[in-house]
């Protein structure tokens, strides 16, 4: 399996390549990519190796070739149909995220238990009763499920999805979802990202003070 | 600096500890934590070491002590005031995220350029004109900024925030934000999470097929 940080970095490089393509740039070097993302060029080269794209000694990578290599690697060439469980605030925001299909998925239906929501649409995506989800997963051969329900129902929804044939779940609840080994559970958990933000702020402060220097020295021993 | 995966895992352990506390559990072992999250117990022990909390040889960790240790480590004891730039779908979903204050931040004001939004409220959070943001950051001594604007304005908004004294930015746009070294930029980029999901689904398929076995063998050489 590709290391997760590599996958995440490749998706970042792709954003840069989009800009370079729009600017008409033909070649890009690992050094340039490394400088922009504040990484070691060796790291960038290693990451790109996973895609199978080979650079040339002096000029680096062909921008279009690398762009397409990453798109293929991430499985983003053809957006895959996805079902959204939970049409609350997070679910609605996702349904409005207009360019998800540039990132490999397309939400084709939403599901909720709230009768007031059922039959309505969010950004042209119809909301169905959650009872209809398993049958529709099977009939439409949907492989990706998104869970944006209240936390206490997340595992139950995941079980319904998996039993019906879903292969990958994008989980927006803070709950740890248990699943068989062949199922992919990816947590979009915003709270984990917040943890990195708030901790890093403390660490930057430590760095600045002499107390911080002592602290840093201690933990680096 | 603490490795990012450690910070993210500690935030996950915290969710488990909340449940254990609610259940009245007093002690928890690294093995139990490791089993639930499908990790190596050594990894769990190393992660927890960063918080300074020490377990006992047989019983493991005191649940409340570990809970509070992680809360302190993540700087989540007192939620910090945060400003939200961009009151669109993502911004609104964040403003409705009722328990952000359990995760270290509290959105106290939102900012937008859309005159129709200015003066209105989302979940009791008032929307101001973006022009007022720098002055309010200074006056209210706000240190955390959230960017949920269209991508093309993200860097400009970040510059405004940083000039006014923001120390950490939670970026919801797919844009790479350039910032001085003492500023924390945390990308909540959903697209990076999607990259992991869609790539992992491919990898699980490879694992299942004999072609996959050959492929796996090759890349593991």
Please give a structural write-up.
2 copies of one chain form a homodimer. Chain A has 221 residues and is of the alpha/beta class. Chain A contains 9 helices and 9 strands. Chain A has helices spanning 4-22, 30-37, 41-49, 63-73, 89-96, 133-140, 154-164, 190-208, 210-220; strands at 27-28, 61-62, 80-85, 105-112, 121-122, 125-129, 144-147, 168-171, 184-187. A 7-stranded mixed beta sheet of chain A has the order 5-6-4-3-7-8-9. In chain A, strands 1-2 form a two-stranded antiparallel sheet. At the A-B interface, α1, α5, β9 and α8 of A face α1, α5, β9 and α8 of B.
How many individual β-strands of chain A? Answer: 9
Bin the helical content of chain A: 40-55%
Tell me the structural class of chain A.
Answer: alpha/beta
Please count the helical segments of chain A: 9
CA-atom Rg of chain A in angstroms? 21 Å
Biggest pleated sheet of chain A? 7 strands, mixed
Major β-sheet strand ordering of chain A: 5-6-4-3-7-8-9
């Amino acid at each position: 399996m590709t290391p997760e940080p590599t996958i995440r970095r490749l998706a970042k490089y792709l954003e840069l390549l989009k800009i370079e393509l729009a600017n008409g740039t033909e070649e890009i070097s690992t050094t340039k990519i490394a400088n922009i993302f504040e990484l070691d060029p060796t790291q960038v080269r290693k990451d790109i190796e996973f895609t199978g794209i080979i650079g040339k000694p002096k000029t680096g990578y062909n921008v279009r070739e690398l762009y397409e290599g990453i798109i293929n690697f991430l499985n983003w060439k053809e957006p895959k149909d996805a079902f959204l469980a939970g049409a609350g605030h997070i679910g609605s925001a996702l349904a409005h995220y207009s360019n998800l299909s540039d990132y490999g998925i397309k939400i084709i239906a939403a599901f909720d238990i709230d009768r007031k929501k059922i039959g309505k649409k969010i950004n042209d995506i119809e909301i169905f009763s959650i009872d209809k989800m398993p049958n529709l997963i099977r009939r439409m051969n949907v492989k990706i499920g998104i869970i944006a329900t209240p936390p206490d129902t997340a595992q139950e929804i995941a079980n319904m999805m998996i039993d019906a044939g879903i292969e990958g779940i994008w989980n927006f609840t803070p709950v740890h979802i248990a699943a068989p080994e062949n199922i992919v559970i990816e947590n979009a958990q915003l709270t984990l990202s917040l943890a990195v933000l708030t901790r890093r702020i403390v660490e930057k402060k430590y760095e600045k003070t002499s107390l911080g220097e002592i602290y840093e020295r201690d933990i680096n021993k």
